[in-house]
UniProtKB/TrEMBL annotation:
This is CBS domain-containing protein. The keyword Transcription does not apply. The lineage of its organism: Bacteria, Bacillati, Actinomycetota, Actinomycetes, Pseudonocardiales. The keyword Transferase does not apply. SUPFAM superfamilies: CBS-domain pair. It comes from the Bacteria. SMART domains: CBS. Residues 8-65, 73-133 form the CBS domain. Keywords: CBS domain.
Length: 143
């Protein structure tokens, strides 16, 4: 069995819940990523923010990204998976909820992230093909 910790990338940085969207966007640019976990003052995962969230839920609505905080965009309970979970469970969770990035936790602390790229690099071609097809079908139906 392959565990999520075996394919995740570690060293994930969080944006603070009180950080502005401008700060989050700059940090994403510096790190070359399109999404970042939002961590609270309690050092726990509170959500994920994407570059698309910033554009669609802030800029497109005429809001100022220097005034809106990451916490204001964090909606609902974030999906995550334990570091000891089977990779198949992670893929199922990602497919069912149409998510392309899945935080990995250990002892309730963020330890990594699984992205589509991690899936592509670490799983057999047929598993990657199934995953991409499932995510694409769901996104096409919802779009």
């Amino acid at each position: 069995m392959t565990h999520t910790k075996d394919i995740m990338h570690s060293g994930v940085e969080c944006v603070g819940e009180h950080d502005t969207l401008q700060t989050a966007a700059r940090r994403m640019r510096e790190l070359g990523v399109g999404a970042m976990p939002i961590c609270g003052d309690d050092d726990r995962l509170h959500g994920i923010i994407t570059d698309r969230d910033i554009v669609v839920k802030c800029v497109a609505d005429g809001k100022d990204p220097t005034d809106v905080t990451a916490a204001e965009l964090a909606q609902g309970k974030p999906f995550y998976i334990d570091s000891e979970a089977d990779v198949r469970d992670a893929l199922t969770l990602m497919e069912e909820h149409q998510i392309r990035r899945l935080p990995v936790v250990e002892n309730h602390r963020l330890v990594g992230m699984i992205s589509e790229a991690d899936v592509a690099r670490n799983l057999p071609e047929n598993a990657v093909g199934h995953f991409v097809e499932a995510i694409s079908k769901q996104q096409a139906r919802s779009g």
